[in-house]
Write a structure and sequence with these properties.
The chain is an all-alpha fold. Helices cover 74% and strands 1% of the residues.
Length: 456
């Protein structure tokens, strides 16, 4: 199959009056315009939920349920404002953050911090590739784990070299649906088993207790559950590729443009809330399973036995017959994160390369070629990392910590853009601005806590 070229696909980053559309007025038309949030959920419901969240529950029991809920809910305000900025200006996240004042080396220091974070998330992707290989090896023992890891990486490269936004959205929807349904079912069954669950324990989880287990796991879970730094950076790219910015049209500050842009911002808001509901329910279900089943049994998933340990959550709540379903679901849920990340990050790396003047990124044919090169690199490096590290849980914790440490920078950079560069015609309401400040302050406090406590 031939690679997708600029002749086959309109440049989604170019704003022209020919692409202008009025926002949908009916519910059916609105639903058809949703999609970026599904891809985001595909990225979120993977390493964060299946690995970091369940390990956090296994280490701490119910006591940190509050952390999971806060992590899933509060970051959406920043996500909304970055999406608003993309619709109002047509700029990508990295182009926007390139406006942040401070040291520069070709691009802003915030862009370079993102590059460092992506280097850290290579470990997370490697962990998920390795975990997928572990599951497939359990199903087909004749094929070694490392061989499965490379096969999955190769298949992903082939899919992403021929697919653009529409395919990515459809694949993400299928991947997310199966395991979300299965996990919610297991969580519902957990409620009926008093040896693992009680509402008193749930209420205890909202008493804001400090981590009794691993601090690194708590920090990683906060960074990687819900919309982490990775997802906050990538979401505006999917909004642009879905067409929200093109539909709003080039900014002219007219009343017609303002109303149209606000309409597409509302569509984006529905997209954000829908995906948040989906991954919050899934994340809470994962945490309850880890806290109820694994913590109660004294099992903390680690090393090559991670998947076997995690499968206990399902066999103990639904029965031994669910293990094959869990293994299939584990492949799907882990692969959804690999797929979403490998689709988004090469686009962003190509964006940085263009910002540094390494090619003309307004030439969409060349932009696609650079993106495809990064697709290959981004999937080969994680597979190599897994070969040398081979500890998925540790790799996820390190990758999640890298994400978490960048959260305050993302928050306060978004505040700067809101006051200095966001078109006044589409400024957020006062309560959203207040929420933006509060969310950024909470994230800064969490990261300061994570850094200072170990030192003390």
């Amino acid at each position: 199959m031939a690679l997708m070229t600029a002749q086959q696909v309109r440049d989604p980053y170019a704003l022209t009056s020919a692409d202008v559309q009025n926002p949908p007025r009916s519910l059916g038309a609105l639903i058809r315009k949703l999609g970026p949030g599904i891809i985001l959920a595909g990225s979120i419901v993977g390493s964060g939920e299946l690995i970091a969240t369940t390990v956090l529950g296994a280490e701490n029991g119910y006591t940190l349920l509050w952390l999971i809920v806060v992590s899933c809910v509060i970051k959406n305000i920043i996500q909304n404002e970055l999406g608003r900025y993309a619709i109002g200006t047509g700029e990508t996240t990295l182009e926007a953050f390139d406006r942040i004042p401070g040291p520069r080396l070709g691009v802003s220091w915030v862009v370079w911090l993102w590059v460092l974070m992506i280097a850290g998330t290579v470990l997370t992707i490697g962990a998920m590739l390795g975990a997928i290989g572990e599951v497939l090896n359990m199903l087909v023992p004749a094929v070694p784990i490392n061989v499965w890891t490379w096969l999955i990486a190769a298949v992903s490269v082939m899919i992403l070299l021929v697919g653009e936004y529409g395919l990515i959205e459809k694949v993400s929807m299928v991947l997310v649906s199966y395991f979300t349904l299965m996990t919610v079912l297991a969580g519902a069954m957990l409620v009926t088993q008093p040896e693992y669950f009680s509402w008193g324990r749930v209420l205890e989880g909202f008493t804001f207790q400090k981590p009794s287990g691993g601090l690194l796991t708590a920090v990683a879970a906060f960074g990687i559950t819900g919309a982490g730094s990775v997802e906050l950076f990538m979401y505006p790219y999917w909004c642009i590729e879905k067409g929200y910015s093109r539909f709003a049209g080039p900014r002219d500050d007219s009343t017609v443009w303002r109303d149209r842009a606000r309409g597409w911002i509302r569509v984006m808001g529905v997209d954000i809330i829908s995906s948040m509901a989906l991954y919050t329910v899934s994340t809470v279900a994962f945490y309850l399973l880890g806290a109820g089943v694994l913590f109660g049994a004294g099992i903390v998933p680690e090393g090559s036995e991670m998947i076997r340990s995690l499968s206990t959550m399902y066999t103990e709540t639904l029965g031994d017959w669910t293990q094959p379903l869990f293994l299939l679901g584990a492949v799907i849920i882990l692969y959804s994160s690999v797929f979403a990340a490998a689709a988004a990050h090469p686009r962003m790396l190509a964006d940085v390369a263009g910002m540094l003047g390494l090619y003309d990124k307004h030439d969409y044919r060349r932009r696609l070629r650079v993106t495809h090169v990064f697709v290959v690199i981004y999937l080969v490096l994680p597979a190599v990392c897994y070969l040398f590290v081979g500890e998925p849980v540790i790799m996820v914790k390190l990758g999640g910590t890298a994400e978490a440490l960048l959260l305050p920078v993302v928050g306060f950079s978004t505040i700067y853009l809101r006051y200095k560069h966001l078109p006044k015609a589409i400024l957020p309401k006062g309560w959203l601005t207040l929420g933006l400040w509060v969310t950024s302050a909470i994230m800064a406090f969490m990261m300061a806590y994570a850094i200072i406590v170990p030192l003390l």
